[in-house]
Specification:
- A hairpin with a 2-residue loop joins strand 4 (about 555-565) and strand 5 (about 565-570).
- Helix 1 (about 1-35) runs antiparallel to helix 7, helix 10 (about 245-270) packs antiparallel against helix 11 (about 275-300) and helix 16 (about 430-445) runs antiparallel to helix 17 (about 455-475).
- The protein has helices at about 1-35, 35-40, 45-65, 75-80, 85-90, 95-115, 125-145, 170-200, 205-235, 245-270, 275-300, 310-335, 350-385, 390-415, 420-430, 430-445, 455-475, 480-490, 495-520, 620-640, 645-650, and strands at about 520-525, 530-535, 535-550, 555-565, 565-570, 575-580, 585, 590, 595-605, 610-620.
- It has about 650 residues and is α+β, with helices and mostly antiparallel strands.
- The chain has 21 helices and ten strands.
- Among the domains are: about 1-165, Four Helix Bundle (Hemerythrin (Met), subunit A) (Up-down Bundle); about 530-610, no CATH class.
- The chain is globular and about 80 Å long.
- About 50% of the residues are buried.
- The strands form two sheets. Strands 2, 3, 4, 5, 6 and 7 form a six-stranded antiparallel β-sheet that branches. The protein has a four-stranded antiparallel β-sheet with strand order 1-10-9-8.
Length: about 650
């Protein structure tokens, strides 16, 4: 009897979590405004209870998927008895209803973490942060319960389900959504801290130190999630690319750009007590872009292979959430931002100025991506025109800002606060500059007549990487090598994290530039037994046969790869058909190495008996994701810096707080 009631338990605990969020929203907010400590302390047990309840609800839905409970509509639509266990579990969030439940569970987790680890926050600020966090939860609980209930029962349960979208039956897509949600929802904490600060009317260095770990964690998870999605698109979709400027790709990229700007802006607030209003605005916009991404994925207004739902009614609900929270936060910002005066002053040549330029470039880049993403919708609504905005627009409009950002990043990292001498900074970076020019010249000489992407991109990568190394060496000071190495080891982890993240960014820039500049593509019809050359490699189509997988039928090619007569390995590209979903997929075969990928896709059989084959030689492709991994490692290093734990931030006296007027 109990297994039959698991779904009802999940539904009931979801409703209870909704009420716990309402309590957490209202009572601590009133307590903070009245100074009633007892009411403020309600926030912490309410946050813990809310998380425990929604975790139980999520566990119940997971149980239904694992046990193939086809009395639930969402399980019927997204699972099948033949599906491997891993994809039964990932089917929980591979749909609209289940992914929303994951969303609110992560939202409750962040709120609970703020309650557990924020004991040294001022009582009123802690209460208001948890209250705002709960308010966001209330909106999404209502969305789930009234429009997207994952526990809807069927009157008559079918014998089997319809299966999960075959494109989602992959380890990359199994991990991609949870990491993205950790990033999206993590920015809700930055939003909650910003709104709480606006209500209190004060922002100081301690506030910046409190908000930075949450923003850094969100940026870190977004980095991992975006990298996983790009990696999946590269090897799973069979189109040979790693980024298509798809609306849903852009939906995750925009908050990543804004959160990167927020991280750098918060540094200025923490160190110099300036850019307070701008930092608050970025915190609001970062979560706003997360909500915009949710709207794009679930409203159906823009089509994408990644979209979860195509339901205008749900889109209107999400749009209402976006308008209420963003509109309310921006109105509060307009009323209160004037009291957050900048206390410090700085010269035109200073680290503050470099960080301002950094922020402007990142914000404008995000705005360009936003305009390009929604322009088809605007054109259809207001001009009755159907059009698409593709990679040519984004490449032309977005690239100059990122190139400029890459140029100033090492300069800004080395500049001192308040006032700097630009000539002295450039002298310190002279080795990086000389090496960059030499590399650009060398590559241009080697590839005369080809695109500028290669020389410029690789030059920027060298500039970023060597600039980060010089930044670390400058922080080690002067003296004997042993003394400098000892000081390097003792540097704060945040300094190491910044340098490692910048190095990772440089490596990603290198990978993208090398791939775009020197990729080789070959499309042809190949007969069985035929050998053909692509670049310096030879490929032979040995056989094409039909086979069966756990829940799919496949046509698989057997190909040999060699170079200069020496065998390198075998490749097995596939064309799969999932009978339950009635959907074909293309499985690329990739021979990987640190210097290049040989990427092969098998197409349809032609009238003459040959097979269509697409072959790519992709130089340094894996460096794109290697750079993302190193950027993420930089984020982890910074997160472990004890100075940016909430308790450390709270230890500073709030003398510089700016009171509300």
């Amino acid at each position: 009897m109990l297994p039959v009631m698991i779904a009802e338990i999940g539904h009931f605990t979801l409703i209870l979590a909704f009420f716990a969020a309402i309590v957490q929203f209202i009572i601590p907010l009133i307590g903070a405004s009245k100074g009633w400590r007892g009411w403020m302390t309600v926030a912490e047990p309410a946050a813990t209870a809310q998380f425990a309840l929604v975790l139980t609800s999520f566990a119940a839905l997971t149980y239904a998927f694992v046990m193939s409970d086809f009395s639930l509509l969402v399980v019927v639509q997204n699972s099948h008895t033949l599906k491997p266990l891993l994809y039964k579990i990932t089917g929980v969030w591979g749909n609209h209803e289940g992914s929303l439940l994951l969303w609110v569970m992560i939202l409750a987790l962040f709120g609970a973490c703020a309650a557990w680890f924020g004991q040294n926050l001022p009582a009123t600020l802690r209460a208001r942060v948890l209250s705002v966090q709960a308010a966001v939860g209330v909106a999404f609980y209502a969305f789930i319960l009234f429009t997207s209930n994952p526990f809807t029962r069927l009157a008559t349960a079918p014998f089997d389900g319809e299966g999960l979208n075959p494109l989602l039956q992959d380890i990359g897509l199994a991990l991609h959504p949870p990491f993205l949600y950790l990033g999206y929802v993590g920015l809700s904490m930055s939003f909650s801290f910003a709104v709480a600060a606006l209500i209190e009317g004060k922002v100081d260095a301690a506030w910046a130190r409190w908000v930075r770990p949450w923003t850094l964690a969100a940026w870190l998870f977004l980095t991992i999630g975006i990298a996983l999605g790009s990696w999946w698109a590269y090897y799973e979709l069979g189109w040979g690319g790693f980024w298509f400027w798809d609306p849903v790709e852009n939906a995750s990229f925009m908050p990543w750009l804004i959160s990167a700007a927020l991280l750098h802006s918060a540094i200025v607030v923490e160190k110099r007590e300036v850019l307070k209003s701008w930092t608050i605005l970025l915190a609001i916009l970062a979560f706003g872009f997360s909500l915009i991404g949710t709207f794009i994925v679930r409203s159906g207004v823009l089509t994408s292979v990644h979209a979860f739902a195509n339901d205008p009614e749900r889109g209107v609900f999400i749009l209402s959430i976006l308008v209420i929270f963003m509109g309310g936060a921006l109105v509060l910002y307009a009323l209160r931002a004037g009291v957050m005066e900048a206390k410090g002053v700085f010269g035109l040549a200073s680290r503050e100025t470099a960080l301002v330029i950094n922020n402007v470039l990142l914000a404008v880049s995000a705005f360009i991506v936003f305009v390009g993403t929604i322009w088809p919708l605007i054109a259809e609504l207001f001009f009755d025109r159907k059009l698409s905005v593709g990679p040519p627009f984004f490449d032309a409009a977005f690239t100059p800002f990122i190139v400029t950002l890459a140029v100033i990043l090492p300069i800004g990292s080395i500049m001192p606060w308040k006032r700097a001498r630009l000539k002295r900074t450039l002298r310190q970076l002279a080795p990086a500059l000389v090496l960059t020019v030499l590399v650009i010249g060398l590559i241009w000489t080697m590839q005369t007549g080809k695109t500028l992407i290669g020389p410029i991109g690789v030059g920027l990568a060298v500039w970023l990487f060597v600039g980060a190394v010089i930044d670390l060496l400058m922080r080690a000071g002067r003296g004997a090598v042993s003394d400098r190495m000892r000081r390097l080891r003792r540097l704060p982890r945040a300094d190491w994290g910044k340098a490692v993240a910048h190095m990772g960014f440089g490596i990603t820039v290198f990978g993208i530039s090398a791939l775009l500049a020197w990729e080789v593509e070959d499309i042809r019809v190949v007969a069985i037994g035929e050998t053909y050359d692509v670049g310096s490699y030879s490929l032979t189509l040995n056989d094409v046969r039909d086979d069966r997988g756990p829940n799919y039928n496949t046509t698989i090619a057997d190909m040999s790869l060699s170079r200069d007569g020496v065998s390198i390995g075998a490749l097995y590209p596939e064309k799969r058909v999932y009978p339950v979903a009635g959907m074909p997929t293309t499985e690329a075969a990739i021979n990987q190495s640190i210097l290049r990928d040989v990427y092969v896709v098998i197409g349809d059989q032609q009238d003459d008996g040959g097979w269509a084959v697409r072959t790519y030689i992709k130089p340094f492709a894996n460096w794109i994701w290697l750079g993302a991994i190193i950027m993420s490692l930089g984020g982890v290093l910074s997160l472990t810096d004890r100075r940016y734990r909430i308790a450390a931030g709270a230890s500073k006296s709030p003398k510089s707080a700016v009171p509300a007027e």
